[in-house]
Amino acid sequence: MSTRAETDFALPKRARLHFGDLALRGITGAAALTVLIVLIWIAYKVTQQAWDAISTFGLGFLTSSQWNAVTNQFGARDLIWGTAVTSFFALLFAVPISIAIGLFLSELAPRRLRGPVGALVELLAAIPSVVLGLWGILVMGPFLEQHVEPFLNDHFGWIPLFSGTPSNVGLLPACLVLTIMIVPIVSSICRELFDSVPSDLKAGSLALGSTRWEMMRSVAIPQVSGGIVAAVILGLARAMGEAIAVSQTIGGTARTGWSLFGSADTLASRIANQYQGAATALQTSSIAYLATILLVLSLAANLTAALIVRRIRRRMGATR
Amino acid sequence: MSAEANPLAVVTKRSRRRKRVGILMEALATAAAILAIVVLAIVVISVARKGLPAINADFFTKNPAPVFQTGGGIKNAIVGTLIMTGMATLISVPVGVLIAIFNTEFAPPPVAEGIRIALNVLAGVPTIVIGIFIFGVLVVGHGQSAIAASLGLSIVMVPLIARATEEVLLLVPSTLREGGMALGATRARTVITVILPTAVGGIVTATIVAVARGAGETAPLLFTSSIFANSVVTDVHQAMASIPLTIFVDSESPSVADQQTAWAAALVLMAGVLIMGIIGRALSLRTRRQIERAR
User: Fold this and answer.
1) CB neighbour list of residue A37: distance below 8 Å, 6 or more residues apart
2) Which residue of A has its CA nearest to B187?
3) Nearest-5° Cα angle at A95, A92 to A101
């Protein structure tokens, strides 16, 4: 960016109009334009496929719990609930862990360990979601069913979250698989954020007698709190949009209820489950309606995160 | 604090508590990092342990056995994944690199910023929605095909390649650009003969990372290449089997033999993806060091 500005003024006018330059500028510009076109095309095409369902059910789709190909009635209420619950609990688990990992890699770990440990955490993100889902349904699910859920049920069964019969598929395994998927993403952003805190601020706090934890709590974390919020929103977008691993582990019965042990379904996993074909045209359109909701949610989340990051950059640029 | 002979020796109740809280929090942060690594190890080890017994020569060289028969392999899925990921790579590497060149060399800063946001938003579109998009554009009326699936995968891969390439291009020292210009080369020539060769290591890394991601994607294939023959297909106008979809379908099967296939396929996929991930990381460290030395 800055390098461009430095060389720009030195060019005589004739050099700018050189054919090769124009051609390369045109080709690369066209590639960049494709990104915008594809984004708009995605929004258009997904909405267009959903149009039948949108005009039939309207916004009532969001509050109806029906999903019945025989009566041709479809609604997304239970799926929105499933998406909300899985994303909420995944973030609840993942955010503290991610901030802790970020602090560890940026402030606590011995220098020699930072590279390898950071790389291993990021490698977790490289495991394909379908492999994580396979592990979730065949290894983690049964483990939760036999050991964790009975324990929670015995001791905390009076809390609605831990009521119900233990099962190898359901909300809890889905939340945990999502947690595993989000942690590497959020923690690597957190690490970069903590690395970006000026070291004189950290040193100043320590020189005033803070312990390392007090320095992190009162200097490092507040300094980058905006960035952490952006990271959490990106994690949320990821959790909402994950279809494969969730559909493998969640059970697939649309339901609203507080028990984490029971089966449920999310917007994304319902779409994935219907891949073998729909019975009616309206069902196909309703699946696209689900995709439209998901698209709106993810666009909102990503744009919010981008705006936050931009505001932070501006502020940092102003103070420096 | 009370005035004692040696102020450093003062240990009040409060300071002891502060120290203890500090130690506890540092221990928790360390535990979080260990937990992440332990989870990685558990997943990798259980996939390896469950997948290894089913891996033999037949697994790679035979097609799936017909229903109710045992044996067979996933040759068609391996070939399908190689072809579809390969086509997606051929599409997304040029597009991604061109976008990065536009952003670093030609676009005015506000335009570059806009493109960058668009790339982030595209990377944030759920992959299952991309599947629905491709379904609407290419599958409705034409049927499923490997081409459709590859285009879906390339929408996932382009933002990854573009962003990573742009980062490397920005690392290329401006003295190299100015040197090229000073010698009278046009900007296009400078890009092609000076900047791209300097950044080629970074582009290779970006490609490896994107291929690793694309090879493991399931969601864009669900609606575009999921109804396929039990044999090797090389016609790109037809749907092809793939490793991720094999895992997805077999993981939900009650049959132990199917689950066994899923584990073995997962082991093949995971090994490939993790090895690519490690190579990509090692290369990116090397490229960075090389470019920094060139400064």
Assistant:
1) none
2) A21
3) 140
The owner of tokens 């030395």 is B293
Residues 6+ apart with CB under 8 A from B31: A100
Instruction: Check B21 against A211: CB less than 8 A apart.
Output: yes
Instruction: Give A42 to chain B, closest Cα distance, Å.
Output: 6
- Answer yes or no: do B129 and A294 touch at CB < 8 A: yes
Q: Which two tokens stand for residue B174?
A: 């401006």
Pairwise CA distance, residues A307 & B117, whole Å = 9
In chain A, what residues touch B122 (CB-CB under 8 Å)? Answer: 35, 38-39
ipTM: 0.90
Distance from CA of B234 to the nearest CA of A (A): 23
Question: What tokens appear for B130 in the block?
Answer: 């991309």
Using CB atoms within 10 Å of the CB of residue B124, give its burial: 0 to 12 exposed, 13 to 18 middle, 19+ buried.
buried
For chains A and B, what is the number of CB pairs under 8 angstroms? 284
Task: Look up residue A109 and give its amino acid.
Answer: A
Residue of chain B whose Cα is closest to the Cα of A281 = B140
Q: Which two tokens stand for residue A270?
A: 């319902």
A131 and B248 in contact by Cβ < 8 A? no
Q: What is the model's pTM?
A: 0.90
How close A263 gets to chain B, by Cα (Å)?
A: 14
Q: What is the dihedral of CA A2, A3, A9, A15, to 10 degrees?
A: -140
HSE toward the beta carbon, residue A218, CA cutoff 13 A: 13
Q: List phi, psi (to 5°) of A73.
A: -110, 130
Q: How far is B62 from B65, CA to CA, in rounded Å?
A: 8
What is the Cα Rg of chain A in Å?
A: 24
Instruction: Give, for all 320 residues of chain A, the pLDDT tens digit.
Output: 444 444 455 555 554 567 888 888 899 999 999 999 999 999 999 999 999 999 999 898 998 888 888 888 898 899 999 999 999 999 999 999 999 999 999 999 998 999 899 989 988 989 999 999 999 999 999 999 898 888 888 888 888 888 888 888 889 999 999 999 999 999 999 999 999 999 899 999 999 988 889 999 999 999 999 999 999 999 999 999 999 999 999 988 877 778 888 888 999 999 998 877 777 888 999 999 999 999 999 999 999 998 898 888 887 765 54
Specify which residues A73 forms β-bridges with: A68
Token digits for B91? 């599409």
Q: What is the 3-state secondary structure (H, E, C) of B167-182?
A: HHHHHCCHHHHHHHHH
Is residue B88 within 8 Å of residue B158, measured between CB atoms?
no
Give all strands (DSSP E) within chain A, no chain letters. Answer: 67-68, 73-74
Contacts with A132 from chain B: Cβ below 8 Å: 43
Residue of B nearest to A290 (CA): B129
Closest to A130 (Cβ–Cβ): which among B125, B158, B218?
A: B218
Q: A18 contacts in B (CB within 8 Å)?
A: 186-188
Cα–Cα distance for residue pair B110/A100, rounded to 1 Å: 35
Any long-range contacts for A147-154 (C-beta under 8 Å, 24+ apart)?
A148/A172, A149/A261, A153/A261
